[in-house]
Amino acid sequence: MDIPQEPSKGRIVPFPRSQPQPESYIPPVTDAAARAAAQAAAQSNVWGPARLAAFEPQPITADQLLEIITLADSTSLPGEMEGISHMRAVSLGASSGAFYPHTPTEWVPAAASRLGITTIELMLQTASEYQPEFVAMVAARAQAAGVQVHSIHTMHHLHPMMDAYERRAADGRALFQQGIEAAAALGAKVIVWHGAKRQDVVSDEGWERFIALTSSLAKACGAAGVTLAIENVSWCALALVRNVVNFATRLGEIGTPSEIGFVFDPFQAVEAGANPFMMLAAMGNRIVDVHISDYRQHDVSARHLAPGDGDLPWSALIRAIAGSGYGGPLMIEGPLGTDDTVMNRVREQFTPLIRSVFPFAPDANRNDDIVIAERGVSEIDAELGSADLEASSITMLSMTTPPAGILHGIELFNQRKFYEQHEAIEHEWHAERGPIRRLYQGILQTGVGFHHALNGNHQGAVLLLTAGIAKTTDYAPHALGIETGALVAETQRCLDQIVALGPDRIAEFDTSLIPTIRFTDR
User: Fold this and answer.
1) In this predicted structure, which of 24-28, 141-145, 183-187, 422-426 has the lowest mean pLDDT?
2) What is the chain's Cα-based Rg?
3) In CA terms, which of 38, 49, 331, 432 is 20 to 30 Å from 228?
4) How far is CA 170 from CA 87, 163, 184, 230, in A?
């Protein structure tokens, strides 16, 4: 098995956040002039060989830091920029894990219904919960509660199918078959499996056993009308982007799209040190289920928080998930408590984010377009738990409003918090699949250019301002309601002065010239 070299861990940067950055830090740009400048900088020891190496194309299978370095034009995974012509509206659902341990599995449909949740995932907690009698009882209660079971989640330790002891592995496989039958009886579309443990696939032999087992399970699932979905769990076989890429290359032999797919879990990606956006891209259009819970970078004990209670960039993540072609429920795994307090808080944050997902790929020349969503208004609002049609931005959408992360990044830019703005905008850059992502990159690089100018880094300021102007110019005079033409003109004035001053007089740069990003309707 050919496994690429393991890269550095990924990380999520919350909004807002402040972090010092080395003055010599200069992100890569890919045009010939910038590359020549990089070579000159290396000769003058502004950067060492390690920084110059950042200009080289990165391995497409690498988990990468969510840093400005990932904004090089060569960092897309295969297929990341292809085949997406629309975005689908997603909805909120809940896993029975969100009610654990205070609510037994058989009462989860009623508990979910009381919170206005109509789609659930059931984790089968014990071997007895796989039995037909128990499954029939849960099915009846789900029907009575008006709740649909989208997916069944198997309990990993009950299925030691990779175990060296044959009888234990066989018993685990037999119980998994009961799980498949339970999913079919409940009308579930998906059965979730964590896959093999990491230690089971460290050898070529172990990896091949895992592939063979997965193929066998996928065929059994397909025969029952259910899709086997493997999750990117931090301690299992598909924890890292490179693992998912290696696995995806074998999908053709494992099973058809109706037999095998992925569960995307951004919390698990971050916990494993993987970039969740690249994980999503590696899974391509084979995502059949999504789990959501939150994470705090600096508190390792804060695991599986309710969505919105941590640091994950949900605006960008939801747009990226929808952009992958996935149109199903986002299964809340973080604890929802025993009343409606947490669920109301999740809805308050996530409803506008979900409504902002639009069914087409944006571009710079559609500033005034009004678009009617493909799906019915009543259907969307029913899923989101609101009948407020006037407030629903998915009913009629104007392309004059950037996504939340871009707006926050622009706010930071205007506050002269230039390093922080790059972190905010980068998440949206990762999430965006259309050509408008070049504008995001242009604004971001402009801000980082001013960061270098304020820190006395003449070379970095010239490189990044030049790159930012070039990209933003493509969207002048305005795009998404942003006065891009004014931004370009005012930035060019700054760049001209910085070039004229030279490295020795960079401290004399007139910072009052730094532009404020303005909007056409403000």
Assistant:
1) 24-28
2) 25
3) 432
4) 42, 9, 21, 20
Beta bridge partners of 398: 370
436 in Cβ contact with 480 (< 8 Å): yes
Domain boundaries, the chain: 32-80+403-513, 91-357
Give 91-357's CATH code, choosing from 2.40.50.140, 3.20.20.150, 3.10.450.50, 3.30.310.80. Answer: 3.20.20.150
Q: Which of 369, 370, 294, 282 lies closest to 334 in space, CA to CA?
A: 294
Distance (Å, whole) CA 302 – CA 290: 20
Q: Given this chain, do its domains 32-80+403-513 and 91-357 carry the same CATH topology?
A: no
- 437-454 and 484-501 helices cross at what angle (nearest 10)? 30
Q: Which fold has domain 32-80+403-513?
A: Hyaluronidase domain-like (1.10.3450)
Across 362-375, b (16+ Cβ under 10 Å) vs e yields bebebbeeebebee
**417: CB partners within 8 A, 6+ apart:** 16, 18
Q: What percent of the chain has pLDDT over 90?
A: 63
Which of 487, 496, 505, 486 shows the shortest CA–CA distance to 462? 496
Whole-angstrom Cα distance, residue 447 to residue 433?
Answer: 22
CB proximity list for 472: less than 8 A, separation 6 or greater = 439, 442, 443, 446, 484, 487, 488, 491
| Sign of the four-CA dihedral 37, 39, 45, 49 | positive
Tokens of 36: 């020549």
Distance CA 237, CA 270 (A): 15
- Is residue 92 within a helix (H) or strand (E), and if so which, with residue range? strand 91-95
Quote the tokens at residue 76.
Answer: 């897309």
Per-residue pLDDT for 88 more than 80?
no
Tokens encoding 235: 């301690």
Q: Is 410 exposed, middle or buried (0-12, 13-18, 19+ CB in 10 A)?
A: buried
Taking a C-beta distance cutoff of 8 angstroms, is the pair 286, 238 a contact?
Answer: no
Q: How many CB atoms lie within 10 A of CB 301?
A: 5
pLDDT for 34-46, tens place per residue? 444 434 433 433 3
**Cα(421)–Cα(376) distance, rounded to whole angstroms?**
36
Task: Taking each helix axis as running N to C, give the angle between helix 437-454 and helix 418-431, from 0 to 180 degrees, rounded to the nearest 10.
Answer: 160
